[in-house]
Amino acid sequence: MAYTNPYSAYRDTAVKTASQGKLVVMLYQGACRELSAAQGCFDAEEKIAARNIEKYGKHISKAQEIIGELQTSLDMDKGGQIAQNLMALYVYFNRELMDATINRDKKKLDFVLNMMTQLSLAWETASNSTANAPAQNITPTLNITG
Question: Where are the alpha helices (DSSP H) in the chain?
């Protein structure tokens, strides 16, 4: 497969070689990027100029697609209460984003972006922890002899 865009090749390789935790972080980062771009469609008076309405809708739609991917990645059987809580949050976020799109409500957009950013940071911390590292990469911290 020949790539004409080096960034595209880099991104594809990063996705194909990422751990599950890192993939979740990448999804969150993508959603945050789209929501930030949607924020940029507002002017100083928190209004969206007619020329930016379509762009605003596309950014929100992409963020909702990413949230949908996060929803489908949940393992409701093994994830227990955490998976249930995340599913409820994702459903809520999509509802808020739908309302933010219809009413061009910057406050709802800001709220979802803030929450997604916090979740992204939490997932990044979790994916970088030794709990996600392969067993051979973990350095023992206890030296028990006896």
Answer: 6-17, 20-39, 53-73, 80-103, 106-128
User: CB under 8 Å to 20, separation ≥6 — which residues?
Assistant: none
Let me know how long the chain is.
146
Q: What tens digit of pLDDT does each residue of 107-146 get?
A: 999 999 999 999 999 999 988 875 555 544 444 444 444 4
Q: Tell me, what's the pLDDT at 103?
A: 94
- How many angstroms separate the CA atoms of 126 and 28, rounded? 13
What is the Cα–Cα distance from 74 to 61, expressed in whole angstroms? 20
Instruction: Write out the two tokens for 34.
Output: 């789209």
pLDDT of 144 reads 41
Sequence-ordered list of residues with C-beta below 8 angstroms from that of 6, at least 6 positions apart, any chain? none
113 vs 97: CA distance, rounded Å:
10
Instruction: For 48, list phi and psi in degrees, rounded to 5.
Output: -110, 125
The amino acid present at 54, given as its one-letter code, is E
